[in-house]
Specification:
The protein is built from 4 helices and 10 strands; from the N terminus they run E-E-H-E-H-E-E-H-E-H-E-E-E-E. It has about 160 residues and is of the alpha/beta class. Strand 3 (about 40-45), helix 2 (about 45-50) and strand 4 form a beta-alpha-beta unit. Bound molecules: NADP nicotinamide-adenine-dinucleotide phosphate (NAP).
């Protein structure tokens, strides 16, 4: 099944500030939940700390080279991109790469589809960003409107490259 990146990005490509999401849009959180429910979600250790608990009804895969985690249901600690890709081959559903910036960068070559919520803000003093060219090899497939006027764009990898 597919490896899918899901991200909310500000006008200036910011995705995070001080270890947190620098905005709050309930409609986007609802969309994220509906989209990822019953699937595997893969997050870097910083995002794991930022969320603070496993997200329910999903396999929470946490990536870290050196940190350890307390054993708990529905949480799996993996040590490399290769381990995640090996696991995803055996899963029935899609694997969602949910961030943060370092983790998106590590999976950039493996992601086949991006689900991008456009945040209509410019975040001053952000410290986590998407690269400006992260969609260069992708073409837009779909646009969804969320409540409150937020827009989600779905991009699939360009087959001609
Ligand atoms: N806007 C959005 O959609 C969105 C989504 C998620 C997060 N965020 C934001 O992004 C920020 C966090 O991003 P971040 O870049 O600082 O951190 P991150 O990607 O969440 O976590 C980075 C850590 O993950 C581990 N890691 C990453 N790649 C790995 C690999 N290939 N193998 C093994 N371990 C790996 C390492 O942990 P160790 O150091 O433990 O080895 C690394 O230090 C926060 O502000 C958060 O709120 C935004």
């Amino acid at each position: 099944m597919a490896i899918i990146g899901i991200v909310a990005v500000a006008n200036n490509f910011a995705v995070g500030k001080n270890g947190k999401l620098p905005w709050h849009y309930a409609a986007d959180l609802k969309f994220f939940k509906e989209t990822t429910l019953n699937s595997a979600i893969v997050m870097g250790f910083n995002t794991w700390l930022s969320i603070g608990k496993p997200l329910p009804k999903r396999l929470n895969v946490v990536l870290s080279r050196s940190n350890s985690l307390e054993n708990q249901p529905n949480v799996l600690l993996l040590r490399s991109v290769a381990e995640v890709l090996a696991l995803s081959n055996y899963l029935k559903g899609d694997t969602f790469i949910i961030g943060g910036a370092k983790t998106y960068a590590e999976f950039s070559g493996a992601i086949e589809k991006w689900i991008v919520t456009e945040i209509p803000e410019t975040v001053e003093d952000a410290d986590a960003f998407m690269p400006k060219d992260f969609l260069d090899e992708f073409e837009r497939a779909e646009i969804k409107e969320l409540e409150g006027g937020l827009r989600v764009k779905i991009f699939v990898k360009n087959q001609n490259r």
